[in-house]
Amino acid sequence: MISIFTRRTVVALVLVLALPFGLASATESNVDSAGLAMHGYDPVSYFRSEHPSRGVEKFSAIHDGARYLFSSAENRDRFIADPAHYAPQFGGYCSYGVRVGRKFDIDPEVYRVVDDKLYFQLNWGTQVVWLANMQENIDVAHTLWPIIKPKTDPELEAAAEKAASQSKN
C-alpha cells in the first residue's frame, strides 16, 4: 500500500512541527472539558476483558493531568500500580492522527492492543487505514509524538498546511 505521506513529506512535516509556536496550551492528554480521559472508559478493561467497560466516578485516578475512571477498585489499583502499561498511547489521541501529525479525538470502542500497548482510532474507517500498514504507522507516530505532544491541533493543522505548501515548491 502506498503511504499517504512520502518520507520527504514526513521529514518536512517534522521540521515544520519542530519550529516554535510560542506558548502552547497543555494538550498532552486527550481529555474533555472536565479533564476526563477516554470518554470515561476504564483503561484496564481493554487488557482484561473482551469488551471495554465504562468506569464510574467513585473509582478514579489522575495520571499526566487526565482523570481516568474505572469499573472497579481492583482496576483502579492496577492502573495506579503501573499507569505506563495501561494508559493509552499518544495521550489517548487517535494513533493514525498522530501518525499524520494531528491530534484527533477517538471512539473508545475503536482500538487495538498491540505489543501490550493500547492504541485508539478516530473511527472504524480510520482503523482500516491504520491496520493496512500498522507497524509503520505505529513507528512513525512514536517518532512524531514527542514533537507534536505539546502543541494544539489548530497549531498542528497550520503546520501541516505549511509543510504541504513547502513540499509543492
Give a quick precis of the structure:
The protein is α+β, with helices and mostly antiparallel strands. The chain has 8 helices and 4 strands.
Q: What is the general shape?
A: globular
Q: Characterize the largest beta sheet: strand count, sense, and whether it forms a barrel.
A: 2 strands, antiparallel
- Share of residues in strands: 5-15%
**Helical segment count:** 8
Helical amount:
40-55%
For the secondary structure, the number of strands is 4
- In whole angstroms, the N-to-C terminal distance is 26 Å
Textual characterization of the structure:
The chain is α+β, with helices and mostly antiparallel strands and 169 residues long. 44% of the residues lie in helices and 12% in strands. It has a two-stranded antiparallel sheet with strand order 1-2. The two termini are 26 Å apart. Residues 7-26 have low confidence and may be disordered.
Topology:
Elements: H1 7-18, H2 45-48, E1 56-63, E2 66-70, H3 73-81, H4 83-86, H5 95-99, E3 111-114, E4 117-120, H6 124-132, H7 134-148, H8 153-168
Antiparallel strand pairs: 1-2, 3-4
Helix pairs in contact: 1-8
